[in-house]
Amino acid sequence: MARAPVEGPEQLFHFAEAAASARVAPAFEPPRAVAEPIETVLITGIAGGQGRLIARRIAGARCRIIGVDRTPWEGHPADVRMHVVDIRKRKFEDVFRTERPDAVVHHAFVRHFRGDPEVRHEVNVLGTKRLLEYAIAHGVKRMVVLSSAYVYGALPDNPYYVDEEFPLNVSRTYPEVRDLAEVDTLATAFLWRHPDVATAILRPVNTLGYYVQSAIGRYIRQRYVPTILGFNPMMQFIHEEDVAEAVALALQTGAHGVFNVAGPGAVPLKVAIRETGGSAVPIPETIARAVFSRLFRFGLYHTPPGAMDFLKYPCTIDGRGFERATGFKPLFSLEDIFASVRH
Amino acid sequence: MSATETVTQAVGALTRTVTDVLPETIFDLQRQIEECMRRIPTRLNAYGYDPWGFNPDTARRAMLVTALFYRYWFRVETQGIANIPPGRVLLIGNHAGQIALDAAMISCACLLEAEPPRVIRGMGEYWLPTVPWVNELMVRTGSVVGTRKNCIDLLENEEVVIAFPEGIRGMNKLIWERYQLQEFGQGFMRLALETHTPIVPIAVVGSEEQAPAIANVRSLARLLRLPAFPVTLTWPLLGPLGLVPLPVKYRITFGEPMTFEGNPSDEDEVIGEKVEQVKASIATMLARGLAARRSLFW
């Protein structure tokens, strides 16, 4: 690891502040004028790498942060009130009842396959459904749901720069993650049904960084990275700090809608592997499928073979809608992103 | 003198000519392509890729092969290349010849002869990205899958997009149908109206005789899941060798840019009228080109 963990929370906090102040003013006015200051923000899934970054990014400026996670966050900042609860349980509603949040950032998703698939489905789908119900029952005014660009799926006939109206095709070739597409659909339905709640559904691209735990991060950090022989799709990347920034901007501007959050650009997969210090090991597709699907079935490898399509076809998105709505511009270049995960 | 000796001598003479002539021209061509690639207006990121995966380094190598065909096999003559306006433009041409070499020759002309040099963005078939290596080559040389969104994005990025509205109908026509323009699709016109893009009509003379097809075996094509299975004088008779096109003389004419205004979602008849204007312009240029030509091969 190139970046030492001594770059602790405090430093990161200042860094995020500096990054925010360095941001140039948006070129055009966001459609909704900057909303009134947020008072209480509830963040679910706060104890994960990305959750912590979001908390640190929006902490401070006249807002109180309530954190919810199944696992505790040791050494969380003093201004964050932690509740260790499972979002599937009734106790979760008590958090809404007692803390009365004005805004919610929903980020409590299970995206890996190491656990029980039933639990995964329950946390993702049932958890989201509950959360949306409580939000309405307890008068939440702003909502950000952190989905991901993977919901579009990687298909050969995908256009480069998929926009927000594109269908969510991921389960066509990757049925194991249909719950994440379902979460996105649930949130979108909520968005249309409750126009009075400013809801932003964010679909960021491959997120890399020092703190975030992601499948793409684990994949690209390997010394020898398996790829599919004869395929080298374009991939977009975004830095974890920029995702936190996007969440903060969506909250601040009260953006309402579904938004792709694209990073600074796209490079072929093999360039990304090279730039992060790994070596690509191309494997013929038939062999890769046979081996990895068996390993997955026997629980020896935790990524289903459906994920291979993301190593074959592009799943690149058009982020201009979010830029127009909030003035978002990623601060971290591709070089910065690759440097943050370099071996 | 025995036949073997004659053959040996001929081969020897040929090799000498090739070694005398080729290296110099290949290096020359390479230099020229590199020079042109440096001057293309397409913007690249820090790693040398454009947003659609185009990469000049790979494209350069592929273009060398194309350029050899352009200069020495088809000896392409290009007219009116200055008609390509700066910024976004849709190139619309006749399509024939069983293999899309017409597109390759047009792209070579636009790189080597246009000022400034331009990279042609092709709209590929939907199954191309599923073919190993082909998918990468296609993207690195500037083409993309032919979806509506890709085309609009490319035009809005001020690129040159090429389209053959005859599509597969033109590509696989038989030898006695040569230079008879098939029905034009309307998609290109709607895209041009939507993005306010000028259209440059192109007539390619020569391509329609490069692989004279005498039949198209539809059942075999279905069986092999190919769009068509043409039978030419040499294919499938000579095997892979039969794929080599005849060394016909190519003449490519770029017409005056045409601009259209209107509602992109108009009725088919309204759009059809505009499409007919483009088709008529290509047909006129084709007729003129055919009347002027003396021979198939020079």
What would the keywords be for this entry?
heterodimer; A: alpha/beta; seven-stranded parallel beta sheet; three-stranded mixed beta sheet; 11 helices; B: 298 residues; seven-stranded mixed beta sheet; two-stranded antiparallel ribbon; 43% helix; globular
Structure description:
The complex is a heterodimer of chains A (343) and B (298). Chain A is α/β, with parallel strands linked by helices. Chain A has a domain of 239 residues: NAD(P)-binding Rossmann-like Domain (Rossmann fold). Chain A is 36% helix and 17% strand. Chain A has 11 helices and 12 strands. Chain B is of the alpha/beta class and 298 residues long. Helices cover 43% and strands 12% of the residues of chain B. Chain B contains 9 helices and 9 strands. In chain B, α4 links the parallel β3 and β4. Chains A and B meet through β11 of A and α4, β4 and α5 of B.
